[in-house]
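Let us work through a complete example step by step.
Step 1: write down the sequence.
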Amino acid sequence: MKKINFFLLIFLLFFSFLSKSFSDEKIVFLDIEFAVNNSNIGKKALNNLNEIRKNEINKLKKIEEELKVKDQDINNVKNIISKDELDKKIKEFKKEIEKFNAKKNQIQKQFAKDKNNKLDELFKKINPLIIKYMDDNSIEMIIGKNNVYLAKSNLDITKDIIELINKNFK
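Step 2: predict the structure and record it as tokens.
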């Protein structure tokens, strides 16, 4: 019985060592958001988008200020004018508010669309560089950093990718 247990133990240990995979595949991770935000081309694209957004916000603020002035005007004259005239002014004011809200929603949708288009354009430019980097460094897979729980810091290629992007897009 002891011999059978001994052989069984040796057998299990032998196969457990054989079953371990000694993989040569290289898997690394990349914080693509950090790379985009800190590369020269990414900063330029994001700054451009922020300027567009600031301009649109300023336009909306001007319209909003005009609406506040109209609201104050209506409140100032509500005791002076007739009820029909007041109702007419309030109705016009509500239509202007609806137009403002529609314009605001349209601007937000357009900004989101522009941002997606710019980022898609940017990724089309940098993806070939990343693929070449993978080939040059025999990398099998790149995983997004936000999907990594724990890993050695030498597997993070974010800085290398930023340098590569900056070198190719000055």
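Step 3: interpret the result. Residues 22-168 form a domain with the Protein Binding, DinI Protein; Chain A fold (CATH 3.30.910.20).
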